[in-house]
Write a structure and sequence with these properties.
Structural class: alpha+beta
Number of strands: 22
Distance between the termini: 50 Å
CATH class of one domain: Alpha Beta
Helix content: 25-40%
Shape: globular
Strand content: 15-25%
CATH architecture of one domain: 3-Layer(bba) Sandwich
CATH topology of one domain: FAD/NAD(P)-binding domain
Number of helices: 13
Radius of gyration: 23 Å
């Protein structure tokens, strides 16, 4: 690691995943050195899978708000994604979506975008740029055992180094000193326990769990559909008193489609390959299933079920100086809404802004930075739990009157958006995390919602001639006849 003047702060980031590397990118201009501590034996130097990132096998949505934030933190990263085969898909005309109120139109001018790429590619491009910074270093095969310090200030972390065979190296835990420790260890973070161990505060946690289970698979896109293909999304309708079923196709690199199917408690998708496409036929519209029948599967089916929404309110806990929590370690979201990466990026951007205003080692930096990072995360949280509370068997606080009224208004907005371009833009501003949800209560939006859509409801999806031609081809496989929601 490059040597820096001792007067500049030293940061240790726990975890080399996306949230950790983005936090390092945010802090690098304002500190002397950053050490990323990672439990894996190595981090891939290519867009390859990581052992401790099983969710990478599932389709990921990188909305415009998150991609914009990553580009601001790491200028040129978008070019890296696109050069490696990712797609910049315009929204709304590059998305075929069947909302609970009907099909969205695609004839509006593009105002937003989504990056179509596998999670491994997205992470790799970010990681490569961050680890190329002169004051950022990486230490692998390192397990965190606890925090050093007390309830007033964290002064480092205790670590155990693993040998090359995976066993713990002799000698026991050692201390890595730091002016700031950033926990980016994800859903499995032990920060709440670590804080109590040093006399720190108890952290309030909220859980909303709709019991979502994912099943995902990669397909080779049909000939002629390898590029300039839309995202296809058939979401559930949370107003229906039955499990919510989702189906999504995201075009990614190498002429592939990343396909994720998901269902809430009682409607979980199967892990068996022969039931994958049948589940897709059981969602609210069979478009995804019809497309998959004309594409070739090129991977096994991967399943994932750690999808509960967890929010740990570190920003209200009165953390010790010198300690921050970022990404899924503070708020982990049901991935069906695709906001986890974007929330992490926007949080990192907020962290950079605070570091530019307040020295990282100064009193008060921790509390200010944690509060700043909580704002974009809270917006994503509300988008997720505002729907997940309504599914049968959901764990967590039941919907109250305010939740029901809010849900009714959101449905009215979605209904209006099927035929009103201004409302489409405002709703997309919020969904892509470019703007706060408060814009949906502005006078123009309220009036539009009261008047309803300006155009009649579509009878079916708006498809281009090329998309219709793909659907007109003979299917490669016939539809199965067994139960689409057979859990096994």
């Amino acid at each position: 690691m490059t040597s820096h003047p001792s007067a500049l702060p030293r940061v240790v980031v726990l975890g080399g995943g996306l949230a950790g590397t983005l936090a390092a990118a945010a802090l690098a201009p304002h500190v002397g050195e950053i050490l990323i501590v990672e439990r894996d034996s190595a981090l891939p130097q290519t867009p390859a899978p990581r052992a401790r990132l099983p969710q990478a096998a599932h389709a990921h949505t990188l909305w415009a708000g998150g991609a914009d934030a990553m580009e601001e933190l790491l200028p040129g990263v978008t070019t890296d994604w696109l050069a490696a085969g990712a797609h910049r898909i315009p929204i709304p005309n590059g998305m075929v979506s069947f909302s609970p109120a009907g099909w969205y139109r695609r004839s509006w001018d593009p105002t937003h975008y989504v990056i179509g790429a596998g999670r491994d590619l997205i992470d790799w491009a970010v990681r490569r740029r961050v680890l190329g910074m002169p004051n950022v270093g990486l230490r692998t095969r390192t397990k965190i055992t606890g925090l050093a310090g007390d309830g007033a200030r964290v002064r480092g972390v205790y670590v155990e180094q693993a040998a090359h065979d995976g066993q713990e190296a002799p000698g026991g835990p050692s201390l890595v000193e730091a002016d700031l420790v950033v926990d980016a260890t994800g859903r499995g973070s032990k920060s709440t326990r670590w804080l109590l161990d040093i006399g720190g505060p108890e952290v309030r946690e909220t859980v909303v769990d709709a019991g979502v289970r994912y099943a995902s698979r990669r397909y080779r896109a049909p000939e002629g559909a390898e590029t300039d293909w839309p995202v296809v999304h058939i979401p559930a309708d949370p107003r229906q008193a039955r499990p919510g079923l989702f189906a999504t196709i995201i075009p990614i690199e190498d002429g592939q489609w990343h396909v994720s199917l998901s269902g809430t408690r009682g409607g979980e998708p199967a892990s068996r390959e022969e039931l994958f496409e049948e589940f897709a036929r059981g969602v609210r519209h069979p478009l995804v299933a019809d497309l998959l029948a004309r594409a070739e599967p090129i991977s096994d089916v991967s399943v994932y079920a750690r999808t509960a929404n967890h929010r740990r309110q570190f920003e209200r806990a009165g953390l010790p100086e010198g300690f921050l929590v970022v990404g899924d370690a503070t708020t982990s979201l049901n991935p069906v809404y695709g906001h986890g990466m974007s929330a992490a990026a926007l949080g990192a951007l907020a962290l950079r802004g605070q570091a530019a205003r307040t020295p990282v080692a100064a009193a008060g930096f921790t509390s200010r930075a944690q509060r700043a990072m909580a704002r974009p995360t809270a917006a994503a949280w509300l988008l997720a739990v505002g729907q997940d509370r309504f599914y049968p068997g959901a764990i967590g606080r039941k919907p109250n009157l305010a939740d029901r009224l809010s849900s009714q208004y959101v449905h009215r907005l979605v209904h209006t958006a099927t035929g009103n371009g201004m409302v489409v833009k405002r709703v997309t501003d919020v969904v892509t995390l470019r703007k706060p949800a408060g814009i949906l209560a502005g006078p123009a939006v309220l009036l539009a919602a009261a008047l309803g859509p300006r155009k009649p409801r579509l009878d079916g999806p708006e498809l281009t001639a090329r998309e219709q031609e793909v659907l007109a081809r003979p299917p490669l496989r016939s539809a199965e006849t067994s139960s689409a929601t057979d859990p096994r």
